[in-house]
Prior knowledge:
Strand content: 5-15%
Largest sheet: 3 strands, antiparallel
Helix content: over 70%
Number of domains: 2
Mean pLDDT: 81
Number of strands: 3
Order of helices and strands: EEEHHHHHHHHHH
Low-confidence stretches: 1-31
Distance between the termini: 27 Å
Radius of gyration: 21 Å
Amino acid sequence: MFINIDLPNTIYNIELTNSADGIDxxxxxxxxxxxxxxxxxxxxxxxxxxxxxxxNLAKIAIGEGIAALPFLTLSLAGASLILFVLSSLKxxxxxxxxxxxxxxxISAFFSVAGSNLIFFSAVAHVGVSFVALTISLxxxxxxxxxxxxxxxxxxxxxxxxxxxxxxxxSVLVVAKWSAPDSxxxxxxxxxxxxxxxxxxxxxxxxxxxxxxxxEALAPGMLLAATITLMIAGITVPSMSLxxxxxxxxxxxxxxxSVVFAGQFLLLFILQKIGGPVFLSxxxxxxxxxxxxxxxxxLGEPMLAAVIxxxxxxxxxxxxxxxxxxQTAYA
Length: 330
């Protein structure tokens, strides 16, 4: 016999079964989709703000004479240490089997090491505003890939959303490309970053280790990214991990480590709740925070194309969220 009790925001399904040993009662509690939507939105905003801040910190570091590779590597090392401590305090240790280790390194390459090394290096050549807005491209790539893989059903709202986001980014790329002082090599290289992010979104969803918690996976991925970048710095002749550690450098590294720890912890939480396409909105939302940071705090000139591009991207976000609200959360 089943008894359904509806309370605000919570549904309890109670099953009563007669047996030789008496009555066996099992209770399952399911959070409503509204609660999950609120958590997903909070994680999206938090992760986006930290991502926008992270890109600005990268430009500050380069302005201080710190190369992108050592700044990224040491920051990730600090962030992984923070997350390992947090996961240990919660008794949620990262899985250490072969499958999990493979997951860490592949996720790290796409979502952390490769993409962030491109973005951190590019800010000195194309500016924070351009990098921040190009990170909004993954919704299109992720949605198309998820659709082809059968992970997402077709939605006119989502399709319209990614179309607006792509249109907004295209406006910016064309304006940047045609500028007299444009660095076209770095424009093209920067556009490779969103492709890596989209691939990482799909991979992390399709290969999520069974039964693993977000808090346990994030430190493993960041440690794998740190190791990957260290190997690159040691083996690639044109790369170097050398850095002068003075007080300002240490302060920047500590700040970036905390930002990374929060950013990737929220990323995994959002991945689990919202799915890969909703996750990809991080890039577009982060631009709304990253660009004002760059203009107000760093004095970076804002491209004229940023406003129409930003409007189109925000319309895309609204459409994507409308489509997401019509889909049950995992």
